Amino acid sequence: MRAKMQDMTWRDRHGNALTDYPRPSVAVDVAVLTVRERQLHVVVVPSERGRALPGTFLHPKENLAEAAGRALRTKAGLVDLTFHQLRMFDNPDRDDRGWVLSMAHSAAVSTRSLPASTEFVLVENSRPTTSLAFDHDDMVAAAVFDLRDHYARDVDPARLLDEEFTLLELRELYEIVFDRPLPKDTFRRHVIGSLQGTGATSTAGGGRPAELYRRASNSALPASAGSFLLG
């Protein structure tokens, strides 16, 4: 009976079964971006190779999203975080422990919602200022470009600002995300149609009162904004 069952095992045209092929280990890593002290940062955790992104190996019967959520929870103490896949990092030499593929994920979250014990590394020119383990520097760079793509299509989609904000606060956030100064009037022209005035003003900073806005019900930015921000 056993021999008969073996004969029913799927084989390719060369007669090889799936178990005849070498298999890589599969991991997940999550780049969590945030803005603190008016600069972009990424969440890091300690590892055997130094600072690294929260990550883990895929467990049996577990999908990639479940593994990524587990890594955030057990390695960084982060729960209920919205994240999404970036891409697979598959360089055969990316991990000196063996053949390991890693599906990189990305998230962006307000610092207000992170635990006080969270450790960060500053991001400049799209990369961590302190080199991370494995190829995690490249993952952070991919996450930064992904964040910019989202911010070029919608007003503060990660809610890094409070629900109400001034145009100055919004522009300063976008200058941090896109890592360049943005002309005041041009920026206003591109985003104002995606905002809703609250009728209230803010005197934060001691200057002239500034109107407070919130994201409109349709906060998508026009295509011209994407060209302006990404160009």
Index terms:
single chain, eight-stranded mixed beta sheet, alpha+beta, two-stranded antiparallel ribbon, disordered N terminus, 231 residues
Write structural notes for this entry.
- The protein is an alpha+beta fold.
- 27% of the residues lie in helices and 28% in strands.
- It has six helices and ten strands.
- The protein has helices spanning 2-7, 64-76, 136-151, 167-178, 184-191, 223-230, and strands spanning 25-36, 39-47, 50-52, 55-57, 84-89, 100-108, 119-124, 127-128, 195-202, 210-215.
- Strands 1, 2, 3, 4, 5, 6, 7 and 8 form an eight-stranded mixed sheet that branches. It has a two-stranded antiparallel sheet with strand order 9-10.
- The longest helix has 16 residues, at 136-151.
- It is elongated and about 75 Å long.
- It starts with a helix and ends with a helix.
- Residues 1-6 have low confidence and may be disordered.
Concise account of the structure shown:
This protein has about 230 residues and is an alpha+beta fold.
Radius of gyration: 22 Å
* Bulk shape: elongated
Determine the oligomeric state from the structure.
single chain
Biggest sheet: strands, sense, closure? Answer: 8 strands, mixed
Helicity level, as a percent range?
A: 25-40%
The number of helices is: 6
Along the chain, the helix and strand elements come as HEEEEHEEEEHHHEEH
Unreliable stretches covering 5 or more consecutive residues = 1-6
Give average pLDDT, whole number. 92
